[in-house]
Specification:
Elements lengths: L14 H17 L5 H19 L5 H21 L2 H8 L3 H9 L1 H6 L2 H16 L10 H19 L10 H23 L3 H41 L15 H9 L1
Helix pairs in contact: 1-2, 2-3, 3-8, 3-10, 4-11, 7-8, 7-9, 9-10
Organism: Amycolatopsis thermalba
Keywords: Cell membrane, Membrane, Transmembrane, Transmembrane helix
Pfam family, one: Caa3_CtaG
């Protein structure tokens, strides 16, 4: 294992990912006129955090690990909480095509929590515990960390409309196991040498912090869902005319959830 990860290329080395995130942010802001403000703030903060992190050269392993936490964990969480896919379904003219993509089996496989966890945490093990660690500062590696983190966060939070909604037990177990694997990886890096220890500690405790935030998200959504079920059960004797029909399509369900 090399004694350092190295220095990032010039800030322009990651410009394709940064440009993509900024374009997504511009589109989001133009469409979010009648959108909950806190979602807009969350998405904006996540996008800017990712762009700043990608544009800042990491000259030490500790700086690189801080970049990893922002690009692969904290940033994706803020982006997902902004619910960009739900917003796109509300305003996009090609929503039927987007619905077909969301219902496709490749998307269903990718957002299956265990699969997303393997792609995310498994990719980190390959990146940091093999000779690939010498390339960890390269744009392709950072792009993978961002994409895998975004996929994992989407699969765990499950705030966007998907083909199959997985239960709390599966998502919770996946989050715990992924967090444990991430923590073990940090410990192995800590044991690799003094030059890795500060970065490994940041990876360990920062990963735990984001993991707790993810756990809070899925628990709060579960609590809200249970509260709605109890409310519906308590109003079973209400007049039929006051009952709100359940959405039958993914598109209708998306609009209903966003209100």
């Amino acid at each position: 294992m090399p004694d350092h990860v190295g220095t990032l290329p010039e800030p322009g080395g990651t410009w394709p990912v940064s440009l993509l995130v900024l374009v997504a942010l511009a589109g989001y802001l133009s469409a979010a006129r009648r959108w909950p403000r806190w979602r807009t703030v969350s998405f904006t903060a996540g996008a800017l955090a990712v762009v700043v992190a990608l544009s800042t050269p990491a000259r030490t392993f500790t700086a690189h690990m801080a970049q990893h936490l922002v690009v692969g964990m904290a940033g994706p969480l803020l982006l997902v909480l902004g619910r960009p896919v739900t917003l796109a379904l509300r305003v996009c003219r090609g929503r039927r095509a987007l619905v077909r993509v969301l219902r496709s089996w490749p998307v269903a496989v990718l957002v299956f929590p265990p699969v997303a966890a393997v792609l995310d945490v498994g990719g980190l093990w390959l990146l940091y515990r093999t000779p690939l660690i010498a390339q960890a500062h390269q744009p392709w590696a950072l792009a993978h960390v961002f994409a895998a983190g975004l996929l994992f966060t989407t699969a765990i939070c499950q705030v966007e409309p998907v083909r199959h909604r997985h239960g709390l037990a599966l998502r919770g177990a996946t989050l715990v196991l992924a967090g444990a694997a991430h923590g073990v990886l940090a410990k192995t890096l800590y044991a690799a040498g003094d030059e890795f220890r500060a970065g490994a500690q940041l990876m360990y405790y920062g990963g735990d912090a984001v993991g707790i935030a993810l756990a809070l998200v899925i628990c709060l959504r579960w609590y809200r869902r249970q509260s709605r079920r109890r409310a519906r059960a308590s109003s079973v004797d209400a007049p039929v005319t006051t009952a709100r029909p359940a959405p039958r399509t993914l598109e209708a369900s998306t609009v209903a959830q966003s209100k």
